[in-house]
Amino acid sequence: MAEPESEPVPVDVLVMGAGTIGCFIGGCLAAEGVRVVFVGRPRVLQTLARRGITLSDLDGMERHVPPDALHLEERVPLGIRPSLVLLTVKSSATAEAAAALAEALPAGTPVLSLQNGISNAAVASKIAPTLYVLPGMVPYNVAEIEPGSFHRGTVGRLAARRSRALRPWLAVFERAGVPVDAYDDMLSVQWGKLLLNLNNPINALSGLPLREQLLDRGYRRCLAALMDEALDALAWANIAPAQLAAVPARRLPFMLRLPTPLFRLVAARMLRIDDKARSSMADDLALGRRTEIDALCGEVVRLAKSNGARAPINEKMVALLEAWPERPEHLSAQRLQSALGLT
Fold this sequence. Notes:
The protein is an alpha/beta fold. It has helices spanning 20-31, 42-51, 94-104, 120-127, 170-175, 186-197, 199-206, 210-214, 217-236, 252-256, 260-266, 280-286, 293-306, 312-323, 333-339, and strands spanning 12-16, 35-39, 53-57, 62-65, 71-73, 84-87, 110-113, 132-137, 142-146, 149-152, 158-161, 180-183. The chain has an eight-stranded mixed β-sheet with strand order 5-2-1-6-7-8-11-12, with helices on both faces. It has a four-stranded mixed β-sheet with strand order 4-3-10-9, with helices on one face. The chain is globular and about 55 Å long. The chain starts with 11 loop residues before the first strand and ends with a helix.
């Protein structure tokens, strides 16, 4: 649909999906004085109603939003008129969430998808054509280190497609400590992030903290192989992924395969991770929840297939994650390499 006219200074946000990302970004906004409504599962909302939201990061930030300052709902309230919606549900719940938003919100409401993968904004737009859905990207890891406490363990700035509807929000997000950069080409940014997110299933299967896992060359070899297939598929599709790491995307697999002492030197920026950081997929496995593997390795498989090719290592990773509930066990680097056909 057509882009809405610019809104006045915003005063209201709806977080659709009170998970780790939704609670962290929404919590930062609430701590800055923005009225935020959180829509989520009863289990999560009950915790927030008791404890509030505690926020921290690797730079030493510590903030707390008390329970009585939170607006918690199990479904989108009818008649609500948010200036902005943050769509932060898991990829598998995008269609259902978009339908609920379309039913309750006025036409033209801006919805910023802050989800993993490539296709969520398109899916939401198809289900909710009356809403103005924008693709976005979250570059950092957030973990729930204890109930109601959300910790950002890596660095980065949010990204979103450039839009008049978001313009008045940029200063608000900056003050809240969750700054947003605007881009004209979000597809390039999303694929740049997806390349890095291919580490999520590796981290989940390793059972290790993120930094410790990245310092194991065997696990890095697995990531490099997944990236090789993705980069080949992107080249066939004539998509140039944005550089979101210290080196261009095409050089990442080479860097990952370096001996660990050299990797420490050249990847100092990538390794700026604290000991609490882990992938959200690791949390999903631990809690027995469905993972977002289809929105990560599955996207690579589909892109390769659209070009008449295959991505067999990404296919095997999808199969490993889908089989986890039947045989939940963490894999050493050697066993994971074997499972992916790398040894």
